[in-house]
Design brief:
31% of the residues lie in helices and 17% in strands. With 125 residues, the chain is an alpha+beta fold. The protein has one domain. The radius of gyration is 14 Å and the shape is globular.
């Protein structure tokens, strides 16, 4: 079952550790994902390790995400329950979803401010 704690734990585990950065560069080629507030470089082996669990979280999202829906709705499950009240955690799930090719942006970043709520629309693939 999706939870703020589990999403944040997995996200944190997918980031590079201090000993995996040498002279300011990661020891393996990261998976780069442009988030809403920040850009991220995730460790590809750990992203792959958690891919199935990330997919299970994404499968709990509401049906409209299959056609693209506002990031603001990412905090709900398909049963209408709020699984988190923290946008940062929603962004973590979105970044993990994009990194595993289970989610994508529906439109270019340049037009996000013109969309309702001023945030991107996200699609579950």
């Amino acid at each position: 079952m999706i939870s703020s704690e589990k999403v944040s734990e997995i996200f944190g585990n997918c980031l590079f550790k201090d000993n995996e950065i040498i002279d300011g560069k990661p020891t393996v080629e990261p998976i780069y994902v442009e988030g809403i507030t920040l850009n991220f470089g995730l460790h590809p082996e750990r992203v792959n390790q958690y891919s199935e669990e990330i997919g299970k979280f994404i499968s709990e999202l509401p049906e409209p995400f299959k056609n693209g829906w506002s990031f603001l709705n990412l905090c709900q499950t398909k049963d209408g329950e709020q699984w988190t009240g923290i946008h940062k955690v929603c962004e973590e799930l979105m970044v993990l979803g994009i990194a595993t090719n289970k989610m994508k942006y529906c439109s270019p970043k340049e037009i996000e401010g013109k969309l309702p709520g001023g945030v991107p629309y996200i699609q579950v693939i």
